[in-house]
Structures
1.
Amino acid sequence: MLGKLHDPRKNAVLLAEITGRHLDIGKALKETEQLFQGCLTKNAVPVPTATKKLPVPFSQKFGEVVFRPLSKPAVITEPTKVHADTEGNIYPDWLGRLKQEYNQLQGNITKEVNVADFGAVGDGKTDCTAAFKKAIGSGKVKVIVPEGVFITRGIHLPSWTWLAGAGKGATTIKLHNNADKGARLLTNAHHWRGNHHIMVEGFSLDWNVERLGSEPKTSTWGNHSSCLTYANVTYGWVKDIETINPGLHGVDISSTLYNYAGDGRRAVGGSKFIWVDNVTGFGFGDDGITTHHSDYILISNCHMYDPSGRAHRKGFSNSNGFEIDDGSRNVVLVNNSSARCFGGIEIKAHQNSSAASNVQIIGHISVNDNRSYNFRHIGHHKSEDSESKTAFNIMATNLVSVGPVFSDLYKDSKPRCLVISGYKNVVLNHLTFIGEPGYNYHGGPVAAIQYQARKVVLNNISFKNFSTAGSGIKVFGGKNRADSVEIRNVTASDSEDSSFELITLGPGLQDVKLEKVKRKREPVLPKE
């Protein structure tokens, strides 16, 4: 079930158990990289364009003018190189730089204090806001938070600060009953000026959503209403943290403000060089872990599950375990897991912002998410829409989807293991898709490549238990068709009476290559 007791540090082992193979991850990463380089040199079939474009709403035009002074041009940089050592540990090439800065953090800590010595009481009743403020001071300090439940109206961390608890569940920092709906439980001190060298580890963060009662919407705006927000932080660490029932996000690695200056623009004041490791979370109103307009982010060994979706209108909740959102670049996700979310991992952007680019996923387990892996640039899908300027470059290796299902979070969304829309240069290698036995998938596809996606390569894909689905992979045709797609090394196991087709192709496709596609028929079990 991958619930509260799941330890995401065991995800690498669990991946091998589910897939039944002990993947040589170093070799697999090189294979993915080679396929990606082939993508870059390929000439794609042009995206069809309509004779008449949809008019841009006045509200969007006005918003782009307002946000433009707080933005800069979006540039697609070189993708981060990812490596695997002899023990199978996976790391981006910039991690060495972050380790050097970690040594700088340790060297600049001049004292270690205990927040209890400043009047904090972990009784779950006493307001400890002033005690945390005194203990933290102006930084260059490691603040120890002992076992207990510490009530606060919000904690602000200056540069050169290390906040350390006694472990998830042992130490809990909780929002005061009278805290504003927009309160951030833990954040850096200066969103506009920026901060650097901040480390938090070893506690639970309880946003205390119960204080809002039955209020339907649990968040306010922007990067408010979250358990932990790093906004305009350079060199940051988030380790061994649990996030509980945030109004919006569990962890938000963000710019000072979200920016909607249009596709081709990114926010100023983004965060960079951040490592989020062994973070778990549930009950989030929107996303468990999210990034916006930030660069060089590593998210590893994390687990997000069972969102509330209450930041959205009921039944229309785009609540994802992991969301790499507007303007994010060079984000690497390693051996994470998600359960019962709308999306397990969503890589995306809003219509009036730049798409996330240069994103790499190495190892992920999705259990009963409605859409396990969902890649899209909203508002750049139809033939009447403008073509995305920034939706480029996704690589993934060793992804697992177990039992995608319908969800009350987004009641009309059909379950999918994979959806690719509008992105170019997408290479996915070693995919294991396992359906719920006997579940009714209503003839839909398990994986969909659609809405002007181009230069997509799927390699080494296996399907099992999707007898009621219509197809394994569907490449959609029509006016806003996908094209320039390569699908290789596909296997499926289903029952003899199944109408399941491995691959279906829509009308008008010009460049789709299929190689080594096979299926295994299993006998139908006799009914009792």
2.
Amino acid sequence: MLAEALTPGVNVPAPARVVGASPSSSKADAGLSQIDASAPFLALETVPPLAIAIELFRAFNEGGLKYGIIQDLASLQNGLAGRDDLDVLLDKHDYPVFCSIVSKLHGCRGVSLSCYDNVCAGREDWFLPDFSRGCYLHLDMHIGVRVGWEFRKRYPVFDYAAITRWESVCVDGVSIPVVSPEDEIRIAIARFAFRAWALPWRQWTTVGDGWRDQFARLPLPSGEQGLHVVEYSLGGERTASCRFLQSADGLVAHRRDLARLRRSIREMCGFTGRYGVADAGVHLARKTSYLALRFLQRLMPGRFPPKRRPAAGGIVVALIGPDGMGKSTQVDRLTRIFRWKFGCAQAYVGIGDGNGWWLRKALQSLVFPHRRRLKSLAQRDSNNSLSRNWSKGGVVAAALALWAVLIAFERYAVVKRAHRWATRGLIVICDRWPQALCRGYLDGPTIPPHLFSVPGLSVLARLEQRLYQKMAECRPQLTLHLVSDFAVSEQRKPGEIRKEAFDARLSLMAELRAKDKNIRTIDASAGIEAVGQELFRHIWLSL
């Protein structure tokens, strides 16, 4: 029988278990150097922790914070490596110190809509960047653990003082408190009690696959017929117990015991009467809203606020540079990194292989093989009205002007959409950005100046110019210029661009930076990882 009261006790740390290696260890021992047989939650595969995780928990220990990791211990190494969440329980009196520490480490808090299941009082999402790897650590921070229905967690049952014993793991010389197996089972059972469901005539309910991992490392002593009992002391003389049975079919829990535990928790929190019906109704309404919103988000991306966004709101980031600088590669990479936990989207304002209007792409596939001949035909004899080819050249010139206006409208729509998405809380990373300073370069206007004097075409030329001026007024919150030598571009995309055109684009970018001192420059000659880390650092510090 396991019968330990859920009351504050003396925290007795267990001997530390080594997860990573200390800095003085050899490279061969850089991962999991020791594995305690009593700690099956430690993964056998070596996953190096993020440097920011070590720095964070060292700061917690030096600041004397009362904290500990309380659940999902099976994925502890993945959490420290930035591949999973870390559920941290913090004493509420240490919350100001916690905020001070994470702010010094450039931490960012995430906010979610109220209809999502992870929104409840006393819980916050915090993210800390690791600039050395170009990724971030996710802290699922709890002032107190609340239990209840999935979309109705309203009952605060566990706080830091309610944990009777903390163990510890040692990661690169830093001790990290983790909840003991006895306290972990109490938290898991209290959460499971509000999620379990069984037919009224059944005495036992099966612990589903989604919960078995949380019960896997719990050393429950076996009694007769494999029966286990967990007892709770819920304040005063109020107690509750829950029976579990390990059978051939798996782990099952007593249905009535779970019902009594739910009722006792509600009474401890001051809720008496038919609150179970109210909880179910609120849970159903919120889950329906959640499913409807998720469906609409997939049906119409960007039209609705994301599940999670930075507390300061969204941002529009533009990556600009000549061909061969790795813009598209970095946009895809950054979108994948930020989309792990935040609402993130990418936009393309060029006329290449990226996304675009189907009409423009269909016309482009037909016209592209003949583009040089059409341009020369439009420019030839444009000032000679008696020329034999004047009518043909004039028609082609008008067609090219209409084509330029179509591209301008498409880019204008992309620019406005990117800012709308950012207003809704998304991080929008744009491949290129239009400019109105120079024609023919860096996604600027394309109608030649001599067509301004041609009757009829001058209207289209002025319309294009006006659209680009409007786009110039909608600047991104962050503009990043990727610069390098022509040799780098030629090596990555041989024959894609001539040196004269490459140098013209670099000169235009320098002119743009002279007009806007907030534009930042990134050396694109480094490797993909190094450039991505630098881009990640600039974007994170702008959130």
3.
Amino acid sequence: MTSLPAERRKILCVFPRYSPSFGTFEYAFPLLDGVSAFMPPQGLLVVAAALPPTWEVRFRDENIESATAEDFAWADAVFVSGMHIQRPQISDICRLAHAHGKTTVLGGPSVSACPEQYPEFDYLHVGELGDATDEVIARLARDPSRPIRQVVLTTRERRDLGDFPIPAYELVPLERYFIGSIQFSSGCPYQCEFCDIPGLYGRTPRLKTPEQIIAELDELLARGTNGAVYFVDDNFIAHRRAVRELLPHLVEWQKRNGYPFYFACEATLNIAKRPEILELMREASFGTVFCGIETPDPDALRAMSKEHNLMVPIIEAIGTLNSYGLEVVSGIILGLDTDKENSGEALLEFIERSNIPMLTINLLQALPRTPLWDRLAREGRLVHDDSRESNVDFKLPYAQVLSTWRDCMARAYEPEAVFARFAYQIRETYPHRIKLPNSPQRLSFRNIRRAVYMLCRIIWEVGVRSDYRAEFWKFARPLLRRGDIENLIAVPLVAHHLIMFSREAVAGRRNASHYSARLLEPAIAAE
């Protein structure tokens, strides 16, 4: 690291608004107490924490509140980060910053994959935290004014994750997020054809220390995080030995603090072969694991270089995870080259057999810096048309693929089907979780007040006003008789979002791919 510059600067960090998506739970927010965003933006918070301590920093997550004219006027420079899906909002922030004469700096996964898509920014930070970050800081310390032409700085020497600071959680209202976020590792050893993670972050997992994770959990707890904390790692078990070393620390932290959190993560399905890891996850109160199942078709999995999903039969692997109290969430892709006329029906049959409550069903989208992008470019099958739901020229007719997606969304998320899958989880998965203590942390006045508020909102909005209230009460009555208030709150929150979002998607008011460039509504930029 370079020596810290003495010059004081004022940095405005702005995280762009997300367009509504299946996995960010917008429809659940009105049922919650003050929640207005899904998850704290981990990457930009780390950057904010890495700035010189003499610099002043303001942070605006536009999913909670927009940056104001006063914010822009105050700043010497504006830092922005985001993903491909946020590109319109990213550009809007740059435009507003320039209207105030401010220098703009863009980093994060989107610009790291496609720097050519952001010609309007003054500085592009390509890659992870490292020597490029030091250079941005040094340049702004010398002169915060806008450069004559765009400067592209690419990280050649990444900062070791063991040297990462605690994200600047103090700059955001953590209590207004649906779940908390934390990162243990970066990178994934697998090379699935459609995934850009190895290209962006490498195949050799890099790690924080257990001590860093414990310090971050202490900070999250002290600053008001409630309920769930999601490990944003690309693959939680990418380095199995390191995970085995981390998990006992999580178990002890939970015991010491009265189990204030339950954890969630993303992992490859072959985690089912690791009972020693699954048992420790159970003891640490992991409740959910996202697995990129992608398709139940073995031929398709082999074609996309995802053979590791076949190490254990998929339904058997899901059952194993359920037996450790882990509810599976799955990513699913339609529009694969191997799809057949009956792929939609096969998927619906798989959903019924697996009883996975939530599956993010997306049309295939080719992302830059992936083997899929390279292959389709060679084959002349990349479609550059922002009015389409996908940039892939499918083997099957486009209209047929889109129709299959809508049919699957409509049938998979019928209220009766959603509640039936959750009822299965309550019977077959949740009883395998450890029994949590009635600790002062879990039974705090704040938590009890929030629970009462959410229960009242659910009963009114779902049990009285919704058109699927009959299905809700069929699900809710047994829980009421048993006094299972926790599931009476948690399940309808998620189910309501799934049902309402899927209806919007089937009606064409939501994109068929989380990565689609098709604009459905004007971007709400900072004001």
